[in-house]
């Protein structure tokens, strides 16, 4: 079981506190005890070896032993704009996007969309992000943005080095033939609803490269994860790519 925990407050100094769902998970699920060693992260990019010092109704107190700058992010910053599917398929999409290294997810409002997430639904998606980050070892959280109309997303993404729109049409380039200019930079990907983008939406996607993901029609979450996996695998096989980069380690208690 994972012994990684998310601290919802930035970790500064030599102490930290787990509250809410994280404290409950430590106490009731993992049966943690005083003296146990765990790893904390706060979404800022570092991870913190820590020891549990006290457990009570208000939460779990920990002594922070060190700060380690560890990056497990992709070299390419990937943003997924997705017309979200319904129900548990959203959770699966978010979990896989986190595991594959996606930087941010933007729920798209489209003419044929079936799910328009409210604030409560967005809160659930953000909790899925934390759970997936704990499992996958990421120290930065995928960002769940506010829902946007596809036209607005298209304009906002205009600064991205690449803009890719998943579309199963004869005018689409197979993704395997898509040429990208090196590993760094940013990419925005758009995935429409089950019925696809309308002709009006496609016409508004000026400057977007239309790509095909194969001969079969994919569900929304499958198409989104296929795009994310393509960039993740491309990053993994890049020559000289290390599985993780440790930028530096600081012993918190001694100040070394």
Please describe what this structure looks like.
This protein has 256 residues and is an alpha/beta fold. The chain has helices spanning 20-29, 88-100, 119-136, 150-156, 199-204, 220-236, and strands at residues 4-6, 15-18, 37-41, 46-56, 59-64, 66-71, 77-82, 104-109, 143-144, 148-149, 162-166, 173-174, 186-191, 209-212, 245-251. Strand 7 (77-82), helix 2 and strand 8 form a beta-alpha-beta unit. The chain is elongated and about 60 Å long. The two termini are 31 Å apart.
In short:
The protein has 256 residues and is α/β, with parallel strands linked by helices.
Summarize the helices and strands and which ones pair or pack.
Elements: E1 4-6, E2 15-18, H1 20-29, E3 37-41, E4 46-56, E5 59-64, E6 66-71, E7 77-82, H2 88-100, E8 104-109, H3 119-136, E9 143-144, E10 148-149, H4 150-156, E11 162-166, E12 173-174, E13 186-191, H5 199-204, E14 209-212, H6 220-236, E15 245-251
Helix pairs in contact: 2-3, 2-6
């Amino acid at each position: 079981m994972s012994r990684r925990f998310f601290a919802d407050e930035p970790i500064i100094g030599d102490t930290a506190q787990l509250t809410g769902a994280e404290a409950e998970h430590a106490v009731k699920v993992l049966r943690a005890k005083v003296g146990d060693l765990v790893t904390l992260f706060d979404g800022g990019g570092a991870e913190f070896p820590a020891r549990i010092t006290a457990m009570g109704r208000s939460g779990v107190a920990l002594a922070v032993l060190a700060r380690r700058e560890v990056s497990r992010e992709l070299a390419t910053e990937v943003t997924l704009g997705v017309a979200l599917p319904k129900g548990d398929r959203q959770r699966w999409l978010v979990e896989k996007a986190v595991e594959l290294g996606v930087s941010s997810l933007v729920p798209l409002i489209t003419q044929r969309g079936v799910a328009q997430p409210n604030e409560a639904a967005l809160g659930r998606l953000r909790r899925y992000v934390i759970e997936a980050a704990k499992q996958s070892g990421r120290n930065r959280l995928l960002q769940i943005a506010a829902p946007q109309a596809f036209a607005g997303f298209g304009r906002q993404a205009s600064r991205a080095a690449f803009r890719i729109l998943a579309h199963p049409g004869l005018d689409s380039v197979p993704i395997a033939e898509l040429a990208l200019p090196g590993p760094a930079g940013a990419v925005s990907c758009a995935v429409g609803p089950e019925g696809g983008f309308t002709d009006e939406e496609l016409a508004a996607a000026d400057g977007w490269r239309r790509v095909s993901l194969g001969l079969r029609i994919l569900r929304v979450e499958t198409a989104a994860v296929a795009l994310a996996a393509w960039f993740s695998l491309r990053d993994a096989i890049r020559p000289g790519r290390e599985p993780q980069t440790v930028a530096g380690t600081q012993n918190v208690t001694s100040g070394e």
